[in-house]
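Archive entry: two folds, one per protein. Generate the first.
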Amino acid sequence: MVNLKINGIAVSVPEGSTILDAAKVANVKIPTLCYLKDVQKCGSCRMCLVEATGARGLVAACVYPVSEGMEVQTNTPKVRQSRKTTLELILSTHNKKCLSCARSTSCELQRLALEYNCDEDKFGSPEEYPVVDDSSVSLIRDNSKCINCTRCVAACDMQTVGAIGPIRRGFAKHIGSPFEVALADTNCVNCGQCIVACPVGALTEKSNVQQVWDAISDPTKEVVFYTAPSVRVQLGEPFGNPVGTNVEKKMVTAIKALGQNVKCFNMDVTADLTIIEEATELLSRVTTGGTIPMFTSCCPGWIKFIEHNYPEYLDNLSTCKSPQQMFGSLLKTYYCEKNNIDPANLFVVSVIPCTAKKFEVERPEMNLDTDVALTTRELAKMISEAGIDFNAIPDGEYDNPFEIATGAGAIFGATGGVMEAALRTAAVKLGGEGQPIEFSEVRGTDGVKEAEYTIGGVTVSVAVASGLGGARKIMEMIKSGEKNYTFVEVMACPGGCINGGGQPYVPDEIRNSIDVRAVRANALYTYDESLPLRQSHKSPVVDLLYKEYFGEPNSHKAHEVLHTTYTARNKFN
């Protein structure tokens, strides 16, 4: 341990800690912009400068190591003036169109500028701003608001995608794609981790809110929403609830209050349906010598990643659509037929914590069965725009016939959840009733998790990738022959959907102090434990669907509605 003082407060921290680490122990706040826990610490923004004994000048607290007997001052006139000047210089090139910015009131630059009483026009403003890149169906990149903190680049590099990076040097430095091509023409997988990392409004999702309002206002349209598993533990955050608060019942009420006759269904239903189809497909491959390992196919960011980088393994992907697309197909077929609705008049809206789902909706293989994918952030904006007092509204219930689901469907929102849900059902199919309900080995936020289970005389070797960095490690081990798995789950976002690119913005102060992913995941597992049904094959809704429509899992009808194909892609278009 190393002993030092921060503003006169004595602290002891492990050797190798930074001044920023020590300041947290002392409960002393040091501002940051480029630093983000688990993503980047590089000292480039110069906001965390402090005075430290033994240093010739101000040092960056996020990277400067502590030493025995060091004394640090974080609030001297010299330090405050340095930070203020840095902010004013950043603001001199920043497009200060704050009132209509998606990050207004949740922008780290805006917050710091207010705290340091900055003059936003002290050093003037550019005559022209960079052109906005809105070529992607999922993301918008607005370099006029970029502060060159490079957190987005670090996030993209962690994903081993590399679709964006710094170009040129000095004052001309900016973030762009290779060869300055449009983002849509790169190998970007639309995961949105760059948005999660961005402290300002330089990266945002492409909004579909107005399309949904138009549909709600159209008397010829019947509008139905369905919500992804993790949204229930995210949506409360924009309305002041602690991270991980389960607001499922208020969420349902709020959605129905957006317009007359708006219905709200539970996407956990098609998560359960995915498990039945996927587990059946896996068992068929295992028993008939099919292509192994089988990869999960519910994450569109992962699908695009493998299409770009490992197209030779496309046959290893499960042919199951994602729960989002299964629900869209189910609504435009079974639901419309049962209720005598023209599919053209049914407007289908999924609510998801994922920006890649916007790309998935547009895939030609999906037949536009889902009309719009809204992020959790977009839904929160619609609720606010509608004047709904979210925390005061009564609890509500999902609409029939898609209201009851199992805990297995709920844990889809956490990394390892799809694997665990599949194992719960596969174990019964292989070994009969009485098999374990929980498979804790595949839980947690580690990049790669592995486990081996023997059930009914069959040994199943599984792996779970949390984030595309972990996915690439697994793919390379499979490719080299080092590993021979039976079943592999991949979620493009580290931590899974609970850390998706469309999740609510979490202030840096909170993100740097707690593991947001773990808190949200724990809320989903707690919800799962509270339910009477925790295995997908025990869902009464899924049972009804097979009896009334599909016949049996992996039937011809099921393949027509619930399964799809994939496409090999070049690195750049």
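Generate the second and append.
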Amino acid sequence: MNKTAQEKIKKLFNYFQNGNFEHVIRECRSLLKKFPYSVALHNLLGLSLQQINNCEDAKESYLKALQLDSKNPAVLNNLGSVCRVLEDFENSENYLIRVLKIQPNYINALSNYGNLKRELNDFKGAIELYKKALSIDDKQFLIHHNLAITYQGLGEFDLSKKHSLIALDINPQHTLSHKILSSLSKYTTEDNEHFKLIKKKLDQEKLSDKQKIELNFSLSKAYEDMGNFEKSFTHMDNGNIIKRKSIKYNIDDEVVHFNNIKDIFLNYNFKEKKERKPEEKKIIFICGMPRSGTTLVEQIIASHEKVYGAGELNYLSKSIRKNLNNTKSSIKKNDFLEKAKDNNNYIAEDYFNFLKVHKFNEKIITDKAPLNFRWIGFIKIFFPESKVVHCSRNSKDNYLSLYKNSFDSDKLNWCYNKKELANYYNLYFDLMNFWKEKIPNFIYEANYEKITSNQERETRKILEFCNLDWDPNCLNFHKNNKTPIKTASIVQARKPIYKSSVNLSKKYEKYFEEVFNSLK
């Protein structure tokens, strides 16, 4: 490669650093026609594609670079990172181990391996890797941030605060650390130092949309703590408006998707059972609308000595997509009917294969992916020995709890517009009524208000439904860090049962009157 080409690559790195990823992608592809054996170009193309969430193509670019240089630590590290995003956890681990064999002190690989460990619920393993990375360079603010998230998930809130503050000391612009601190703080007056800091920061002119979103939601939470619901709503609404503008989403796709599911099962006879080999492990699927109490219910069940809490798994959706030609909003009915009659249970086989990357010995597992409520009919057919616990909550409280949070998952893009959120809630409500009519006595209803008003009685009923003996640990779920938490409910689920969020929506009713009236 000549000097001119090398200079062009250096300029492209500058464009990459400035976030101009589309330009880098175009130029890399153009240069690769002249220099197809350039590891640097393939790697940079992969990095840019990954930044715009085109992870499949990013992986292909990294693999081409790896073919040219099989021991390149940067390429191996990037492959480990993108495979984790693609939920190819086994390959992700293999690539990261290869990096660390070549360069044991490669900080990015240690950090990425820590992220993978956290993804697979090995929080202690993640902490060890993050600490090792920081022993090499303690000025890595993102690693301090990842440590803060990990400690938060374990209920180690003081350590979470400590590392969030260190991350902010290193990089004052890292507003995600403010978001963690706000979730761990109780604001009583506007004299609170952290409150004044985030308020001042939001008044700055030069902030990205992402920073504005995080600061607005943080301030909304602070004002709610103080009982100033007008200002809380203002910042909540601002955060949602900015976030909705930043994403591409069409609620009509959900309408098609939900109608497609109902059409498939409308005339299906669930009484026709297909005898298949029983599974070694039993799944308790905990589902419902996000923020309906799914994390609380999982923590209760997973505190049982015989249960492993796997958290939110995407494995059921992946298995269905893989086997039933599921596009974004459609499943082919003929594919479903064929698989339902087949002696081989490919959907369950794939699900349990995905599950193997988790290291546990228990025979009973909780899968707390809320949106699995869409797949209850499939669960009945392909996981007949499983249990389904549906979490429900006052619709207005559930709505509010969704609207006042910003989520990492793009599966919740319907949350950031009042009408779209109401429409999605009603789609969910109709589908749950459909399942209850089609499959009576299959779904257990775990009601949030009932659990908070009579914890022991409702806990006993849940355990009985799951065929679990009584275990008093289930009453002390908040003391159990056996099951780490990775959702927006981290702080709440680490507390004993409380009722302060019941009917909280009444405080905001005048701001949501129209949409509240439209909820089913």
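Annotation attached to the second fold: The two ends are 65 Å apart (CA to CA). The chain has 26 helices and five strands.
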